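Please review the protein record below. Tell me whether the encoded fold seems credible here:
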Amino acid sequence: MEIKKKYSNGEVTVVWQPSKCIHSAICFKTLPSVFDPKKRPWITLEQEETKTIIEQIKACPSGALSYFMNDEKNHESQVLEDTVVEVLANGPLLIYGNLKVKDKDGNETMKSQTTAFCRCGASKNKPYCDGSHVKIAFEG
């Protein structure tokens, strides 16, 4: 069973799925008042405005962080309407939006928000990025 941890400030709930995290560190480098891996819990939402938190979550390259507004009825269905592809310099291919990923065994997984795909070839979690590009000094 996949672990999902939830953190709320009453207005928004942040969902963290550690198995998806590629440890890009974007969250805590950009918003250390909310994301601090040295603390427990490592996510505390009370120090920032909800809008700022949501913008940071949208920047998560792996999709390990997601959110839902507490007053919405269908909580974990935050779906982006447009699909955007972005190539990160020396890093993964990011897809923002809705897509169906079929693995080598034919298993399908629906993805929404942000999905990071490996471009360096070193990921141990293909087709997804696991941050290996940093270790091998990938350039591209």
